[in-house]
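// run 5 | inverse folding | seed 20
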């Protein structure tokens, strides 16, 4: 069981900001910006690269939920970044799909 599955199961604490039947969102423990929230599916999908066509509604729901949280966090006008790290070169460290919602400061491009 991954650390994110344990957060879903309330076995370890997290600062949860949103929950519905399909997903959970909580603040990143090592924030890279004033707002850094992870939006994860409750379904244990390891990474976006392992999604299947039947996951299309779920993936859309994660993105739409992230935009709603951005509005609640009041970063929708200043801007924000949604990031999904997939695999070693991208720096994926937890094998449970998560969308990073990052905002509250200007960001450079491309990422390092
Ligand atoms: P990634 O590198 O894309 O796999 O992102 C994993 C993210 O999970 C990192 O930004 C970590 O800081 C974050 N993280 C790891 N453990 C926890 C935790 N217990 N609660 C909240 N965020 C966590």
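// decoded
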């Amino acid at each position: 069981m991954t650390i994110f599955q344990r957060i879903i199961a309330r076995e370890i604490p997290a600062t949860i900001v949103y929950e519905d039947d399909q997903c959970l969102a909580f603040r990143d423990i090592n924030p890279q910006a004033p707002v850094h929230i992870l939006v994860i599916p409750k379904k244990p999908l390891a990474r976006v690269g392992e999604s299947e066509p039947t996951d299309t509604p779920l993936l859309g729901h994660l993105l739409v939920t992230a935009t709603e949280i951005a509005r609640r966090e009041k970063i929708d006008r200043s801007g924000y970044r949604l990031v999904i790290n997939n695999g070693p070169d991208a720096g994926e460290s937890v094998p449970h799909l998560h969308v990073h919602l990052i905002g509250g400061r200007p960001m450079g491009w491309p990422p390092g």
